[in-house]
Specification:
Blueprint (H helix, E strand, L loop, with lengths): L22 E6 L10 E8 L4 E6 L3 E6 L2 E5 L3 E5 L5 E8 L2 E6 L12 E4 L2 H10 L10 H16 L6 E3 L4 H12 L7 H7 L4 H12 L3 H18 L4 H7 L5 H12 L3 H6 L8
Antiparallel strand pairs: 1-8, 2-7, 3-6, 3-8, 4-5, 4-7, 5-10, 6-9
Keywords: DNA-binding, Repressor, Transcription, Transcription regulation
Protein name: AraC family transcriptional regulator
GO molecular function, one term: DNA-binding transcription factor activity
């Protein structure tokens, strides 16, 4: 197995290696010495030379990019292409994994950041890849597994956990205000007036710039805030009230439709064995 020249991999940060193995996998935990440290913390704006696939087994990761914000609950993964600026906030995530893909490996993968579903195949191979030599070119059997990982990422379903940010200054002002106060009782007409535009213009711009109706976008913003509060241990009734729902049952219904489970069951589930 050919070792990579030391001059090509001098940085201790694997995400900055342009050379080296096509794929590097790291286990995440709250150990200060971890190359992929989780727990509860924030990482300010930065970018990496390698593409990243981030996944946590419990807790929550918020990722902000120039294209918007999205959430990574357990069993979902975030894809960040090489060179894309992003800011990360981790809430109560004690275990997980990250795949660091060399630029050539990223060919054919999404050009923009997104949230994808994690298949059992992808998860199992990610944990197997953690044990691969990080200083060596991939062995033939590892190349075959890496090719399957590439296909799993490329074909994975995209999840509706993204809150895209519009570019129009008026609409962006409205969007920032909604994110600051997701439980606001303001109607669409009131938000349009806040943005100095007509309701029709607000609807048209939101659909054109985000691909969502205003109601859909607002619900995504509420879901994002609700997941954050729940991950921090807030009770469902308090979260429901903070988001402006008439009752906890209404919030639970929205949550179940979006994520396929009730908040209580969703956050009570724990990962199974983590070795692949």
């Amino acid at each position: 197995m050919k070792k990579v020249a030391a001059t090509e991999t001098t940085s201790p940060d694997f995400s900055e290696w342009l050379d080296g193995p096509a794929l590097i996998a790291l286990r995440g935990n709250d150990d200060p010495a971890s190359a992929f440290r989780l727990g509860t913390r924030e990482y300010d704006w930065h970018a990496h030379a390698r593409g990243q696939v981030l996944c946590v087994e419990a807790g929550l990761i918020h990722v902000h990019t120039p294209h918007g914000a999205w959430l990574l609950p357990p069993r979902r993964a975030g894809w960040v292409p090489p060179g894309v600026p992003h800011r990360v906030r981790v809430s109560g995530a004690l275990s997980g994994w990250v795949l660091l893909a060399a630029p050539a490996f990223c060919a054919g993968l999404p050009a923009r950041p997104c949230v994808i579903g994690v298949s059992e195949v992808l998860r199992a191979l990610a944990y197997r890849a953690i044990d691969w030599d990080k200083q060596a070119a991939l062995a033939p059997e590892h190349e075959r597994m890496a090719a399957v990982i590439h296909d799993e990422i490329r074909r994975a379903p995209h999840e509706a956990l993204h809150v895209p940010m519009p570019d129009d200054p008026r609409l962006a002002r409205v969007a920032r205000a909604v994110l600051d106060e997701p439980g606001s009782p303001r109607t669409l007409d009131a938000w349009a007036a806040f943005g100095a535009m007509s309701p029709r213009t607000l609807r048209r711009l939101m659909a054109a710039e985000t691909g969502l109706s205003f109601a859909q976008w607002r619900q995504q913003a509420r879901l994002a805030h609700g997941l954050d509060l729940l991950a921090r241990g807030r009770p469902v009734a308090e979260v429901s009230d903070a988001l402006g729902y008439a009752s906890p049952s209404n919030f639970i219904l929205m949550f179940r439709k979006a994520l396929g489970d009730s908040p209580a069951h969703y956050f009570s589930r724990r990962p199974d064995g983590q070795s692949g």
